[in-house]
Amino acid sequence: MKTLTTLGEFIFECQAEYPDATGALTSLFSSIRLAAKIVHREINKAGLADITGAFGETNAQGEEQQKLDVFANDKFKSALAARGVVCGIASEEEDHYVQFTDDHNMNGEYVVLMDPLDGSSNIDVNVSVGTIFSIYKRVSPKGTPVTMDDFLQPGKNQVAAGYVIYGSSTMLVYTTGNGVNGFTYDPSVGVFYLSHQNIETPKTGVIYSINEGGYERFPMGVKQYIKYCQESDPQTKRPYISRYIGSLVSDFHRNLIKGGIYMYPTTTTYPEGKLRLLYECNPIAFLAEQAGGRAIAANGVRILEIQPEALHQRVPFLVGSPLMVDKVEQFLKAFG
Ligand code: AHM
Ligand code: MG
Predict the structure, then answer these.
(1) What is the mean pLDDT of residues 58-69?
(2) Per-residue pLDDT tens for 5-50?
(3) pTM for this one?
(4) CATH architecture of 207-335
(5) Which of 85, 89, 125, 167 has the fewest CB atoms inside 10 Å of its own CB, making it the most exposed?
(6) Separation between Cα atoms, residue 47 and residue 45, nearest integer Å
(7) Beta carbon of 274 within 6 Å of any ligand 1 atom
(8) Intrachain domains 7-196 and 207-335 with the same fold
(9) Residues with beta carbon < 5 A to ion ligand 2?
(10) What is the CA(167)–ligand 1 centre distance, in A?
């Protein structure tokens, strides 16, 4: 009989491979796992909002219902602050980074950057959303409050990254730089089980994901690549399939497993791209590369090499199966 491995066991086993490991990262993952379960529970109640009071409104008992993205931010923040291993966080939901200044946490060596509920505009219509997280070692000395430099590190410095997808099932997918593994949540026992070991993305695929409504606003190279995806060529299995959920974690997760490319280029509405380098692109790029994929900005620069200049910096983002990213890069070079 196949034995079930839980997320906790898996992390513990991996830690044993590093003799110098202090257990701090294991503890940090426990925080993420706990917050993910709480957010899972709340999201799965979201459909009852009309009965219990919509999020962001006052319910029948006169209680203010917290919006789910604010709820998720609070839960992850307090879970991360609870174990004395994280000295500060930055979040898409917060204007500034947050210092954890109690003695215990100030001695923690990790900072976490997160998008607590990405794609949250999809919740009202029962579409999958996700939490994205990115973990770095601090650069400031232990025992002092975190500084901006701790957060503005290039993505290649990430120690770990991952996402939780709240979909038809809830999954946690993460990397510590040694491959990508996925765990599926069994809510009846409250446990994540290893379900996708050592995920490798296909070298190429037949799915392209982009908000095509913005076509007129895309750079010429992207427009030409879209035309290429739509042309008929049985040898390269074109025309490709267009799939776009509008929820990055869901679009990326599907493409990661099936093979495909996700694009959010510069547009005239978002001249720097829409997605956030620190909370969305870096962690997804780390996962993509660890699964054998590629992630670049529109100028062909590897996402993980970009030196961030601001917490909420945006960047054009192209990620997915390596041969598909190579192809769009050729179009960008040829057409700009
Ligand atoms: P959000 O962080 O405000 O939720 O925005 C990020 C989301 C991504 O999940 C998704 O891929 C993208 O925005 C969709 O944007 P658009 O509606 O412009 O296609
Ligand atoms: Mg987001």
Answers:
(1) 68
(2) 999 999 988 887 776 678 899 999 999 999 999 999 999 887 776 5
(3) 0.95
(4) 3-Layer(aba) Sandwich (3.40)
(5) 125
(6) 5
(7) yes
(8) no
(9) 115, 118
(10) 16
Neighbour count for residue 232 (Cβ, 10 Å): 7
CB 119 within 8 A of CB 43: no
Q: Is 211 in the pocket of ligand 1 (CB under 6 A)?
A: yes
* C-beta of 265 in contact with ligand 1 (< 6 A): no
Going from the Cα of 262 to the center of ligand 1, the distance in angstroms, rounded, reads 12
Q: Which ligand is nearest to the CA of 121?
A: 1
**Using one digit for the tens of pLDDT, what is the confidence trace for 134-168?**
999 999 999 999 999 999 999 999 999 999 999 99
List all residues 6 or more positions away from 20 whose beta carbon is below 8 Å from its beta carbon.
Answer: none
Q: Is the dihedral of CA 24, 26, 29, 31 positive or negative?
A: negative
CATH 3.30.540.10 fits 7-196, yes or no: yes
User: Measured from the CA of 211, which atom of ligand 1 is nearest?
Assistant: 19
Q: What is the dihedral of CA 279, 303, 161, 159, to 10 degrees?
A: -120
User: How far, in whole angstroms, is CA 107 from its chain's centroid?
Assistant: 27
Digit-coded pLDDT (tens) for 214-259: 999 999 999 999 999 999 999 999 999 999 999 999 999 999 999 9
pLDDT band at 3 (very low <50, low <70, confident <90, very high): confident
